[in-house]
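Issue 218. Parser rejects a valid record. Input:
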Amino acid sequence: MSERDVALRDGRTLHVYDEGDPDGLVVVEHHGTPGSGLGFPPDLELARERGLRVIAYDRAGYGGSTPNPGRAVADIAADVEDVLDELGVDRCVSLGGSGGGPHSLALGARLADRCVAVAAVACPTPWDAEGIDPMAGMGEQNVEEFTAVLTGPEALEAYLVTVAAELAAATPEQLRDVLVTLLPPVDREVLTGDRAVHAKRRLDRAIAPGIGGWRDDDLAFVEAWGFEPAEIRVPSLLWQGVQDKMVPVAHGRWLAERIPGVEAHISEPDGHLSIAVGRLGEIYGWLRERF
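Output the parser choked on:
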């Protein structure tokens, strides 16, 4: 693995992780909320086996990346374009889960000349999506979080500071209890052992500089993304768990009806975390075939 800070066109820097097959085809990965780009070795091996080079990054304000207050989801396209230019990469595919999902889809709408396919797992809809209540079916902690988002930045920051302190103080084994209202049994089962240790490392790196990245993600999610799902112009893959308490299944069903030509999988046995554990190799394979 190599890490570097990439200078962006507006003077910020993005902390980038370059992993997997060094000679492979590039998949740009977008972490969840909160999160960082630190890769999990068994997952990276799945990419390497399929001839993929994983380029991940800390989104603005997380980990080692410069904050970008007021950013929109679509702004990630320019950041990724700068990273591709720095690394000498002409073409890529894109994968994002949870809060990374909208950022992955953004490349299919705003960077389609270089990003040839996108995949999103447990992806939320735009907040103003017609016909659904975005908080219906969320676990209590996510309802509290987005109620704070809608109340205003001060309420949101106060909420996130408290939750971030709880996450920072937790051991890997305690994460399941800290996130108790958000994890159905199928997700509790996968957040154990080495995967829990990695989740803790990834969270610690994400919030080490504070809650700025998390705050800016949340604020971006309740504003216009900067593109519409109907504008996605490349092959698209969507996976959504029916048991998901972080991003309820209605979000996945809504997107499946609106992304042109999307291959959508609404999975009855899955929650929020379990798809990325059980289906990642399959998702990597699908992306590999789109080059």
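Fixed in the parser; the record now loads. The domain at 2-289 is CATH 3.40.50.1820 (Rossmann fold).
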